[in-house]
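Give me structure tokens for this 345-residue protein.
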Amino acid sequence: MSWLHKRTYTKAARFQPSALGGIQPHHVADYLKWCAYGTTDVDFKDLEQNPTCRSSTLEQDKKAISFYMPIKGATWNGTSGNPTKSDAVNEVVKEVKKAETQHRSKKSCATRDLTETEYRKVVHELYGKGSFESTIRTACMLKQQVHLITRTDDISKLKYSDYKPHPDFPFALSCKVHWSKNISEERQCPDQIILGSMDTDFCAMLGLANYMEASFNYGYGAAGRENAFLFTPESDPKLAPKHCNAAYRNILKAVFLSAPFLAVAVLVAGVLGSHSIRKFAATLARGMGATADEVDIRGRWKARLSGWVVDAYISPEQPWIDAPVAEKLAWVLLLPTSYTRMPRE
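Here you go.
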């Protein structure tokens, strides 16, 4: 509205539905042109006019504007509806995407996925630090993140009660990830299998066992705290995961900036970040032969239901799909494995 009315509004400003309803598709299209090109007078056929932002930025701006529209769901029909859902607006985004393909736009800041060599280097650098926070806790979180294909904040919110012995396979564990970004209902977070691996760099089960044994010495597993967070001794439901996630990301960032890691990472172009780990897990599973739909289920991406009544009756747990992907994430060079508890002498 500040751009449209050529005046500055504070964040406290409020607008009537009638004022918001007056926004037309050409207003939104001109605003996106101004964001991308610095002017509303744009000739998309002129190759000298190059956008200074990415199409993803425009799509986010478009989404933000759509949030405040009086009619959100309806496509623009020429006289009414949501102006962000119009051909004029979509055309601007389309042209910026075309410019990206032709390398005429701003360079992408999106993080790439780790390579297997880089992942192993991260794990070995964590092992070499010799502290509980890095060698044991962060290494365990990293292995869980790869094995479950999660985000960093999903791992930070895991609790002891989320893990349990698998009901059908005594050599495996099951885990329920409640906090994934795309989960909107309970059916979208079924129990998922955790498998061991003969490759210690990827063995989520061995990393978890080492961590849980060591964590009791640091007060992380105090008695009577079944619902306690797994990777932090804090109990505040809001601050504990936030602090845990920040500590995890900071340690990974330090590794990413270390000289030994940069010597390996310099061989592949692209920016790395914490999201590179989830991309690595998804790419690894796909490269090991899993289909895109199988990776989608393992990673708990938003379900694409048919809308049929039968969907409510079909169990969301699909172990025949989940387990093979878990196997591929544990396999890599060797075979999945199981562990047997040995009696103490």
